[in-house]
Amino acid sequence: MLSSFAPLELPQLSLPTIRRLPNGLTIIAEQMPTEAISLDVWLRAGSAHEADEINGLAHFLEHMIFKGTHDLQTGEFERRIEARGAVTNAATSQDYTHFYLVSAPQDFAALAPLQIQMVMNPRLTEADFDRERSVILEEIRQAEDNPRRRTFYRSMEMTFDRLPYRRPVLGSVTADEALTVQQMRAFHGSWYQPGNMTVVAVGNLPVETLINTVSEGFEQATRQCLVSPQRSQPEPGCQLESPFEEVCRASYSDRSLQQARLVMSWRVPGVAHLADTYALDVAASILGRGRTSRLVHHLREEQKLVAGISASNMTFSHQGVFYVAAVGEVEQLAAIEAAIAHHIAAIGQQPVTTAELERVRTQVANRYIFGSETPSDRAGLYGYYQTMTQDLSHALNYPHRIRQISPEQIQAAAQQYLKPDAYGLVVMKPEE
């Protein structure tokens, strides 16, 4: 259950209209005086919804959506999009997949139903599946050749023993080679259903026009659907993992590295306990966001211990990860780890300063404003929070939540979740 909050005054964003259709589809619409329309289709269907044996299938399916329908041959959708100067793309994450389209207002009624048809009625033929598999395999290999990606994968494996966040979104070469088109059809039939979707339309058309265009597009796509909806597959187990009780270490050699990489991670609350994440968001900014943050200022600017360092609070649906990532010389690794642990201890021992807290509040407010200027920004903001929390107020109220955080709350969160002597540690060293 999500924590409940007292009502707050909303930021200066116009309140979007939310409509839930009888088929379970949630539509969010807002008229915005910019000559563009953003259509964003969000699904609670990411890599965390896969069983281990089909890891990577959600991302593979994202690719296959663009291979056409029985009415739209491969390439026809893109041809129509490009002919009108519109843009389309998609992304898959741990907890969701989304497909987006940006068009001129006068083209929305023609293009939005095509996007919906592609998502709801993909062709998913054996031939397309076999051809696209080689593209997916190459994407996996490129990701595995990226030192930053490799380090991230290792840190997620360290942080989570059981939860599906330990697996890469792309899957592995071994898992991908074993996938079948029948498994993909079953996954699509289970998860790509209106009740599991949020569609956001933001731009310069009346709200009712936006809603009607989306609603009619889904009605048409449902009538044309050739695959019967399937009963939803059970999600993998989501029992939370206990905090680290000691320092758990893993070290790897990497021939592509010139400098060592270090990641320290802590298991922290996820979206399911959203109220507990705000203080950790602030702590991450105070520690490692910007040149004046504690870790950057002390470890990089003053002590020259690291070439780069950052802190982040990553909030997945079930559980989150607070982590600090640094790049430096091998002979400095012990000093880097000790210095980071010292700062983690300090933020739990003493309240942060008023100046630090005000800096973060200003950063959050400005990022929120700058990140809400376009239809695409708004559609992404609304779609993400509605998909992850089922409550749009969390998107609208985020700056207020951050402004309410006190130094004592940050200190308490650090004491509870960020133990300076109990964390996961992954080190990637250059081969000698």
Keyword list:
432 residues, disordered N terminus, single chain, globular, Cytochrome Bc1 Complex, Chain A, domain 1, 5-stranded mixed beta sheet, 6-stranded mixed beta sheet, 18% strand, alpha+beta
CATH homologous superfamily of the largest domain - what is it? Metalloenzyme, LuxS/M16 peptidase-like
Number of domains: 2
CA-to-CA gap between the ends? 50 Å
CATH topology grouping of the largest domain: Cytochrome Bc1 Complex, Chain A, domain 1
* Helix-strand makeup class: alpha+beta
Q: According to CATH, what is the class of the largest domain?
A: Alpha Beta
Average residue-wise pLDDT: 92
What's the gyration radius in Å? 23 Å
Q: Kindly state the percentage of residues in helix.
A: 40-55%
Strand proportion: 15-25%
SSE pattern, N- to C-terminal: EEEHHEEHHHHHEHEEHHEEHHHHHHE
Précis, in short:
This protein is α+β, with helices and mostly antiparallel strands and 432 residues long. The protein has helices at residues 57-65, 76-83, 108-120, 126-144, 147-159, 173-178, 181-191, 207-224, 278-288, 294-302, 333-349, 354-370, 375-389, 393-396, 398-404, 407-417, and strands at 17-20, 26-31, 37-43, 87-92, 97-103, 197-203, 248-254, 260-269, 308-315, 319-328, 424-430.
